[in-house]
Write a structure and sequence with these properties.
mainly alpha, two-stranded antiparallel sheet
């Protein structure tokens, strides 16, 4: 090999070595850059994961706090006030009474007495004989023994009229009386089962006496109206009229007074117009006069409601019936040839109810008498 060749080969090897060295340095630089980039990405990911974990922890703690607040804080009522938590003596007492009222629906006598004993130990200043009477009455009521329940309720109201349970007792008596008025039967002499209408009326009357009729929402007024409606349902119209008259003495105006006036008129009108098989032998026309008085009063006070209740037609019918009633009396005297008495009644019909059919018949009868008298004179 010549010197030139060796030199050329040497230069090539040298250049190759130099290129390899430069390539190695370039690769090292690239590796270092890749390591830096990878390191930065890993750092960023770790920081991001750390932040996500911190946010998750913060959200979890917030939810826990909200749950605890919702559990521990009292709910706000619709009127903006927080209800009282049953922690004070009065709240605990009311809660115990509420639980007692629920328990008597299915408890035994012994269980109720045990509950009362515990209540007396826990609330000696509140629990007295009136509570025991009320609880035992409720026990009998829920066992469907109304007569026994009424004994307890009556004793409570007589002996402890100012008891805090008096109102609830009268409400319960109203329910019992309503059941009797609705046809519930009671046992008499331990043998006979009869409808308890009379018992229901008696209980309602006592409620009206105790509670009075001067409060629109009182159980006393509700009891009086229930009795009046009961009489109407059984076609005891005069008894119903008397009860509505009692109510009207307390309520001359307003919705209750308005209804009372109308029902007084309706009951007198119905009493006169009962079916023929239920009428008394001698019809009393005073019922028609009373009905007319109250119908006219109603029409004068409430003219906008008169047509709705068909009052103008009823007034016309009353006039026809009253006129015909007097006309039939005149016809009787006419048949027995007591002409003077007959003319008296005919003239009454013509004068008082001139536009009725009975008045026209009275005029014809009057003319008949006049013609007969003239023929006899000739």
């Amino acid at each position: 090999m010549t010197l030139a060749v060796r030199r050329a080969c040497g230069r090539g090897i040298f250049e190759s070595v130099r290129c390899n060295e430069r390539a190695g340095r370039y690769n090292d630089a690239c590796l270092r850059r890749l390591k830096c980039l990878f390191s930065r990405q890993m750092t960023n990911r770790m920081e991001m994961n750390s932040r996500v974990q911190e946010i998750a922890v913060a959200v979890f703690m917030t939810l826990c706090c909200l749950g605890a607040a919702a559990t521990e804080s009292p709910r706000v009522q619709t009127d903006g006030r927080a209800p009282s938590v049953p922690g004070g003596p009065q709240e605990r007492y009311l809660l115990a009474i509420s639980e007692l009222k629920e328990s008597v629906r299915s408890a035994s006598v012994a269980e109720v007495k045990d509950t009362l004993a515990r209540l007396k130990e826990d609330f000696p200043q509140h629990v007295g004989p009136d509570l025991e009477l009320f609880a035992m009455g409720e026990l009998e009521y829920w066992k469907d023994r109304y007569a026994r329940a009424m004994v307890k309720y009556e004793k409570l109201l007589k002996d402890y009229p100012g008891s805090e349970f008096a109102g609830a007792t009268m409400d319960r008596q109203f329910e019992i009386a309503t059941a009797y008025l609705g046809g519930r039967k009671k046992t008499v002499l331990g043998l006979f089962r009869i409808r308890g209408y009379a018992e229901g009326v008696e209980i309602m009357e006592r409620l009206s006496d105790r509670a009075g009729l001067d409060e629109p929402n009182s159980v006393g007024l509700k009891a009086a109206i229930a009795v009046a409606e009961h009489y109407e349902g059984r076609e005891k119209y005069i008894d119903a009229y008397l009860k509505w008259s009692e109510i009207a003495s307390y309520w001359e105006m307003g919705p209750i007074g308005k209804r009372a006036i109308l029902q007084m008129a309706e009951n007198n009108f119905a009493a006169y117009n009962k079916p023929r098989e239920k009428r008394q032998p001698l019809l009393d026309a005073s019922k028609l006069a009373t009905a007319k008085t109250y119908y006219e009063r109603f029409a004068m006070r409430y003219p906008e409601d008169a047509a709705k209740h068909d009052i103008p037609a009823k007034l016309k019918r009353i006039d026809e019936q009253m006129a015909y009633k007097q006309y039939t009396i005149g016809r009787y005297y006419h048949r027995v040839e007591r002409i003077e008495a007959a003319n008296l009644y005919y003239d009454m019909v013509i004068e008082n109810w001139p536009n009725t059919e009975a008045a026209e018949m009275a005029r014809q009868a009057r003319q008949e008498i006049a013609d007969r008298t003239k023929d006899r004179a000739e």
